Amino acid sequence: METSRINDPRTPPRTPGSPGSPPGDCDVVTVPARQGLEAVDILRRGTGEAVGLVLHDDGGGTLGFLVPPGTAAAWDVPGSTCTGTDGRGLTLAPEPPVEGSDWLLPPGEADLATDPAVLREALGKAARTIKAADSCR
User: Fold this and answer.
1) Cα atoms found within 13 Å of the Cα of residue 99, Cβ hemisphere only
2) 19 found inside a domain
3) What angle, rounded to 10 degrees, do the helices at 33-45 and 116-135 form?
4) What percent of the chain has pLDDT over 90?
5) Is 58 helix (H, G, I), strand (E, B) or coil?
6) Neighbouring C-beta atoms of residue 26, cutoff 10 Å
7) Cα torsion at 4, 81, 125, 71 (round to 10°)?
8) Where are the stretches annotated Disordered (predicted)?
9) In this predicted structure, what is the pLDDT of residue 71?
């Protein structure tokens, strides 16, 4: 599969975060894997909203949700971080764009970016679910 380089002048401009936009047009929200997996489940079954591309690290400790560019500037969800990618050469390919990671939801199986407001709500619900489950032990 041919990869699409970010900021390639031959690549026509696209609306950031739109389907088919390269991942470099996105910021990345990183969360603990347990909360992230719960949020993916919530997004896939409960909200009716699409979940975007999701990365996981090789150690399985974190998940990274691709969100529209600019999200990092206002992201304030406790227990998570949001990093702007600034188009640093990420590629849209079957191979993950970050060394030491792999796709949980790869290109072709998900929309490009998750709506940050929807993700924020799903992460909050996931945290509450985990807290409730842990308090039953």
Assistant:
1) 1
2) no
3) 120
4) 39
5) coil
6) 28
7) -60
8) 1-27, 85-109
9) 92
pLDDT band for 48, please (50, 70, 90 cuts): low
Report the domain count for the chain.
Answer: 1
pLDDT at residue 81 greater than cutoff 50: yes
CA distance 17 to 99: 22
Parent domain of 50: 29-135
Token code pair at residue 44: 């896939």
Kindly tell me the sign of the dihedral angle through the C-alpha atoms of 69, 116, 50, 66.
Answer: positive
Q: Which of 4-8, 26-30, 123-127, 128-132 has the lowest mean pLDDT?
A: 4-8
In a domain, 98, yes or no: yes
Average pLDDT over residues 102-129: 89
Nearest partner of 27 among 69, 89, 78, judged by Cα = 69
